[in-house]
Design goal:
single chain; 859 residues; alpha+beta; 6-stranded mixed beta barrel; 6-stranded mixed β-barrel; 26 helices
């Protein structure tokens, strides 16, 4: 039967062209994303980077004997001991803000400061100028050679634009402010100083893992007295014995543990990998949905041909083998074409990823044969799966049907399609119920909850043939009373040709459904996270820093504003462990004053209490408590980013965070890091807004600091806007590719359908209809198909949103559901334009020639 399949393909190229195009484009889409996904795996930059040319490095000691990176510092005793034993080079790493001369803060670029003596260990090479020596000189990486000789402003912790030298632990203006001066090498905080302008005396090449600014060694020590690592050529064994229990000695491949990205660049590709993974899975699903509908429609168009084969003696088994053989041949050819086109599509995709910050500048997408082989096999499998869904139908074709002239379809669904569609619907509902009952927090994460809306869209797409009829009756109901022939033709054509209508509707359901369900899921999850934060934080205003933190001077001026309560909050990563030095967990936490708990900050408490916590309190969420086996009253050691270990006691366990850890640490034990933000409210009541005089006084206190004041509602709104922009950015690739494919599939299906309706159009012409009237009827049918597809997509969106809401409402009272109306409307409009235009143009081509010849021609 394979030879017969080849013969039918040769003589029915036009009929199979639609399936070929759908498969080729589907394989292109899968191959493009498979190549991108494959490029995100592995280690792009193996081996040590920051200390690639170093023999031995001494680093601060963390839990379990693990080294710590900056801002952790070595103790003064270790520095003195190692320095006295032999040749050493002190490395310091500290955040800086480089202003290339523009007066606006937006021109600042975040970089890492180092002493010039450590540049050679990373492999930096001067491209222009010389090394910095004097206090007012710097060298920058990756800049133009014309920068040499220019004066730029550099903000560091010591200049008041970076981390501060002290922090207020007060919650009102009546509480005293504690300050700590830093001058010893053991505490690692920067020494105080004023804003400075530096002259660029050198430009080096750029390295992938950081953007650096190099200072003279003395100036780097002034800006950041603490030593983050010591490079030496001393014997590693004797050195390890000398600093045992106080520092870690590393060499060789172990030096990667001190790199800014110890994964060799893999961590920098996390966003690209997540995007490519989601898009690849989505591409496979969309391809299967569309190809299944296309093959089902192609099989329906050939019903009389298959009946003729049965009439001349072909058995049902032979017919099935022929259909599968055709699918195999089409699949192999289309998948091969798709694999050729896929690498071409990665070029604009990479440019988009780099331009939108999804991937770093050094990211490349090579042509990988394994990825293309996977795409090829998936393309062929999609063809066979699409054909397999029609096997039961084609094997049941009776020989007598060769005489049937009616185009009314008696069965709209095959058993396989029923099984797949119903299975996806049951799976979506079951997954939503299980998540709502066991792990409702998953509904706030788009990556973890993505399968549920995709299952809903797939179910409604596969069940479209059986849903089209009732939905169509509702849509075309107003046409029932029309006495004109056009509306009657539109209504009856759509209702009787369910398979053709379903083939047109399926890609529209995919396009509109994916946009509606996935964007609604993402935005509702983001809104739930912000709603939870709004319920947990009671503040009237927020001070947002212009750099990496609010400096001490600004915080002191804020604390001096009469009648204003200031709650400084510092975001940091801490490790918790036992007194014996064994690590328990790593947490993202907020350092807050004790008085803020239960007043300004009120997370839902599951056990313990936020009232009058101990001075060294630690509040963890349910996830940390369950996974680490911790409870209220347990004592743990917190290892701060600076390398300082402080004993803490768990004062309370709060509800699990919706977007990472929801933990709080006493600001009294964290030393003096600069707050990443500060909550403000009136002393007259929790969350009470500031009056005009207080607001003016706060703004005066912020003068010259680059920090700015905003209301808490405006702060949350800005975060909502930022989250929406990030969602839209991700949607451009994740949904854009699937949307483009679905629209092409719509046009492709309509071209197939119009080519098979030549005789129908010819008979209408013989009955007196002119070409314009026929085109109008077909355009109206296409518009109805868009409305039906939109209705089914809306049903899928409502079902997915309701399922997600069942989970979110268990986490956030009155959890919001955010529907992206503009994006959905734009998608519907685009589908309408493409569908009507494709149907009209295909009809114009199909009605060319004399009607009598077309009516009497062969199929």
């Amino acid at each position: 039967m394979l030879s017969l399949a080849l013969a039918t393909l040769r003589h029915r190229l036009t009929g199979f062209l639609g399936a070929f195009v759908a498969l080729a484009l589907g394989t292109t889409m899968i191959g493009m994303m498979a190549l991108t996904l494959a490029a995100t795996f592995g280690t792009p930059h193996p081996g040590p980077q920051r200390f690639r040319a170093a023999a031995t490095v001494v680093a601060p000691l963390g839990f379990d004997g693990q080294p710590m990176k900056a801002p952790a510092v070595l103790s003064a005793e270790v520095v003195a001991q190692v320095t006295a034993a032999g040749t050493t080079t002190a490395d310091r790493s500290f955040p800086v803000r480089l202003d290339a001369g523009s007066s606006g803060a937006t021109s600042q670029v975040g970089r890492t400061g180092h002493p010039w003596s450590s540049a050679a260990f990373a492999g930096y090479r001067l491209l222009a100028g010389r090394a910095p020596q004097a206090a007012g000189e710097i060298a920058v990486t990756g800049g133009a050679e014309s920068l040499v000789g220019r004066t730029v402003e550099v903000g560091t912790a010591a200049t008041g634009t970076g981390t501060g030298t002290s922090t207020s632990t007060s919650t009102s203006t009546s509480t005293s402010t504690s300050k700590t001066s830093h001058g010893a090498a053991s505490d690692g905080a920067p020494a105080p100083g004023g804003p400075r302008r530096y002259t660029v005396v050198g430009v080096t090449d750029a390295l992938w893992f950081e953007s650096a600014v190099f200072f003279g060694d003395a100036e780097a020590q002034r800006l950041s007295p603490g030593v983050n690592a010591l490079v030496t050529d001393q014997d590693p064994g004797r050195l390890a014995a000398a600093v045992a229990g106080r520092a870690v000695v590393l060499g060789g491949a172990d030096l990667t543990r001190l790199d800014p990205d110890s994964t060799g660049g893999a961590q920098a590709l996390a966003d690209a990998q997540a995007m490519a993974g989601s898009t690849t899975g989505l591409a496979v699903c969309v391809a299967v949905f569309v190809v299944t509908a296309t093959f089902a429609f192609a099989a329906e168009q050939r019903r009389r041909e298959l009946a003729l084969l049965r009439l001349v003696g072909a058995s049902p088994r032979q017919v099935r083998r022929m259909v599968l053989g055709e699918a195999l041949l089409i699949g192999v050819a289309a998948a091969a074409v798709g694999c050729v086109l896929a690498p071409l599509g990665t070029v604009p995709l990479r440019s988009w990823m780099l331009g939108h910050g999804v991937a770093p500048d050094w990211f490349t997408i090579p042509i990988g044969l394994p990825a293309l082989l996977v795409a090829f096999l998936l393309g062929v499998a999609a063809a066979l799966a699409g054909s397999a869904s029609t096997l039961v139908r084609v094997s049941l074709v009776r020989p007598v049907e060769v005489l049937r002239e009616s185009v009314v379809e008696r069965r709209a669904m095959t058993p396989v399609r029923w099984l797949l569609g119903a299975g996806m619907l049951v799976g979506a509902v079951a997954a939503g119920v299980v998540i709502a009952r066991t792990e409702p927090y998953l509904a706030a994460s788009a990556r973890k909850y993505e399968a549920v809306p995709v299952l809903y869209v797939g179910a409604f797409t596969l069940l479209a043939p059986v849903l089209v009829r009732p939905v169509t009756r509702l849509v075309v109901g107003p046409l029932r009373g029309s006495a004109k022939a056009g509306p009657l033709l539109v209504r009856e054509n759509v209702l009787t040709a369910r398979r053709r209508t379903a083939a047109t509707v399926a890609p529209i359901v995919v396009a509109v459904g994916l946009v509606g369900t996935l964007l609604t899921m993402q935005r509702s999850g983001d809104a739930a996270v912000l709603a939870r934060q709004q319920q947990e934080v009671h503040a009237a205003g927020v001070v947002v820093p212009g750099g990496s933190g609010i400096d001490a001077g600004t915080l002191e001026r804020l604390a001096a504003v009469p009648g204003v309560r200031v709650t400084p909050v510092t975001s940091m990563n801490v490790r918790i462990g036992t007194a014996a030095g064994d690590q328990i967990d790593s947490l993202s936490t907020l350092a807050v004053p004790a008085a803020a708990l239960g007043t300004t900050i009120t997370p839902p408490v599951r056990s313990g209490s936020l009232a009058s916590p101990p001075a060294n309190f630690l509040v963890i969420d349910e996830h940390a408590a369950e996974s680490d086996g911790l409870a209220v009253g347990d004592q743990v050691v917190a290892l701060l980013p600076t390398g300082v270990r402080v004993p803490t006691v768990i004062a309370a366990v709060v509800a699990r965070g919706l977007h990472g850890d929801d933990t709080y640490l006493s600001a009294a034990v964290t030393g003096t890091p600069a707050p990443t933000q500060a909550y403000l409210d009136s002393e007259t009541g929790r969350g009470r807004p500031l009056d005009e005089g207080q607001t003016a006084a706060v703004r005066r206190a912020l003068t010259g600091s680059r920090a700015h004041l905003t209301t808490y509602d405006a702060y949350l709104e800005a975060r909502r806007t930022q989250a929406a922009e990030q969602t839209d950015t991700a949607a451009v690739v994740i949904l854009g590719i699937a949307l483009a494919y679905a629209l092409i599939a719509v046009a492709n299906t309509l071209v197939m359908a119009m080519a098979g309706r030549r005789r129908e159009f010819a008979l209408l012409g013989l009955a007196g209809a002119v070409r314009v009237q026929i085109v109008r009827v077909v355009a109206a049918e296409s518009a109805v198909a868009v409305l039906v597809g939109t209705a089914l997509a809306a049903a899928a969106t409502v079902a997915a949103a309701a399922t997600q809401h069942a989970s979110l409402s268990r986490l956030v009272p009155d959890a919001p559901t955010v529907v992206p109306w503009w994006q959905i409307g734009a998608t519907v409009a685009l589908c309408a334009v493409v569908t009507v235009a494709a149907a009209s143009s295909a009809t114009v081509r199909a009605t060319r020639g004399r009607a009598a010849e077309a009516a009497g021609g062969r199929e």
